[in-house]
Sequence to fold (774 residues):
Amino acid sequence: MTQSVQNALPGLSRVGVLGGGQLGRMMAIAGIPLGLKFIFLDPSAEACAGSLGQLLQAEFSDVDAARRLAAMVDVATFDFENVPQETAQALAQIKPLYPPSKALGSCQDRVVEKEILTGLGIRVTPYHTVSSRTDLLDGLDKLGYPAVLKTRRLGYDGKGQAVIRDQEDLERAWQQLGDQELILEAFVKFDAECSLIAVRGTGGETRYWPLTRNVHSEGILALSLAGDFDQALQSQAEGIILRLLDHFDYTGVLTLEFFVLDDELLVNEIAPRVHNSGHWTIDGAQISQFENHMRAITGMPLGGTAANCEALMFNWIGHLPARAQILSIPGVHWHDYGKAARPGRKIGHATLTAESRQELAVNARRLAAAAGGMFPCLLNTIPGMNA
Amino acid sequence: MTQSVQNALPGLSRVGVLGGGQLGRMMAIAGIPLGLKFIFLDPSAEACAGSLGQLLQAEFSDVDAARRLAAMVDVATFDFENVPQETAQALAQIKPLYPPSKALGSCQDRVVEKEILTGLGIRVTPYHTVSSRTDLLDGLDKLGYPAVLKTRRLGYDGKGQAVIRDQEDLERAWQQLGDQELILEAFVKFDAECSLIAVRGTGGETRYWPLTRNVHSEGILALSLAGDFDQALQSQAEGIILRLLDHFDYTGVLTLEFFVLDDELLVNEIAPRVHNSGHWTIDGAQISQFENHMRAITGMPLGGTAANCEALMFNWIGHLPARAQILSIPGVHWHDYGKAARPGRKIGHATLTAESRQELAVNARRLAAAAGGMFPCLLNTIPGMNA
Fold:
């Protein structure tokens, strides 16, 4: 079989991905059956997506490598939101890059992100920009205690942030983070945390998965429960994300993380990519966030985003629980990212599916008990999931 | 990251697969999230599973290559049922091979297969063993016209067989096939064709997917409709396959193809592997045949085999229809095997899912019309699917 014949097949578009982590890996698992082939750019030779395609080992700051990647593919995307703007723009000058580098860049700075949101009339957590110790004191005067001090750039999974409850915290936080550009955010005593994931195709077709309830532990997502909110909140969330899709002239999957406060949504964060809180869509929705992201960026028609069943995702952080024990619980779908275990590292997840919320709750308690650690306690914080 | 740390993870078992076609490819897509890694042995450098693991390029008759494969993996299976017995046995002497080579060997000879079935009291198509022209004439006397002359070995997808309706067909069939060991089978005027897929774990745990209605075109499977038969027929089929699972001391996925005749099942063929008629389970069942095969052979607990929804599979033979047009129909899941197009070759499939049989029928007619060729006509042969 000659290479030219292979290339003549309609299904063999090559997708370049900046980043080769678990998000890229799950993009490939979803995209390969669509006829796509993958090339990942990642600084690590161990990048876990690498075994599902070709791996171009290079730093994200290596603009030449990004140009080489562009030459090898038909379209590009990213699985890592801290790709430098110069790298993304260099690639985008050669091949289409979705989501657009404008969205990528805007979400890399928490202050710029909040300015865009407020400019669009979207409610955000009250905040204050901090470039000096004086700014920080002014901010605390304005927002009050407690508040959260965060780096404007490069924070994720609770890294680069500190809660300030008193004067002592203030000094510690300033010592820890004071050499960077910062943002001080009010500490929101939310009723719940949730996220909305949307996808838009190159032709403008837009779809939304159901709002997902999220539970964090030490700043890292631990549990996501699909479809746990009413239609009013769903509509509110869709109205908000629609403004952002339009603003960014967006293609691909976009995620918004919200705080729910008295039936109102405050945007906590924008993620211009597939998101950990959407992993349940692989096993619980008609078409997953990964497959629809691939369909969107390659110009294919989008698939349905409705939930097929009840679904609850457990994140495996730092280590994998005993696989055989977890898989003996009915309705468990196992996802091992093929990454080495390391404290605080996301190395896999499991999605529990069930026909009814009651069946879900029963098996969720078994799963939480088998997984151990914080899970039984965290599960109890979700209404209807406690014993 | 050191290799030893990687190997210490519980999820990194290595699976060897004799054959690297679409079945191996779909095993890998299902097995990779379970934490498995794959090595395929295949004579072709273009084997379409190769991009999802390591490819050991060797002939299936190369016993040394099979031994090398065995040394590289923890457990082995096959995606191709014509692997020579010597190869399978050589591998099985070094590492566990599932399904057992005994089952593999028995299913490679249509006469041996039928002798095992009748020995277990299972109804089969009436047949006559043919080693000479005299045998053929005796067989036609016994079974009458029409009858089907088949090679005992190496036939698949309608290859190596000829229908004999009259004296003229007889001469043509003998000229075409007479230099091989043959079997003459009565031509069964069945009411329907269906298949049952079962899976058994190393500990004996056994599960069954719902009976699937199959429609063939020119000897090749064209359509599979999930769960299209009543509980009585399902129980009858499960009783039959259970005798075979026990007989072979089976581990893994086993498929039986049946003719339905006056509410009775006749076994047409045994396939000791995942099967084309079970591809709908990827998108329509709780756990797919591919994932449960992987769970079974690696000793993991099995997952649920119930259908989540209505599901109908369309096989893409020889060429892929226009992907964008097909994907614009609601509920379509696309599976491109990454193989070069060639007449008569299975190069992909699509599974249509729906909430109700009525919705399925409506979208199935759209899909059949978009796919063209024989599909509209074949779809019309399924009760409830015609316009």
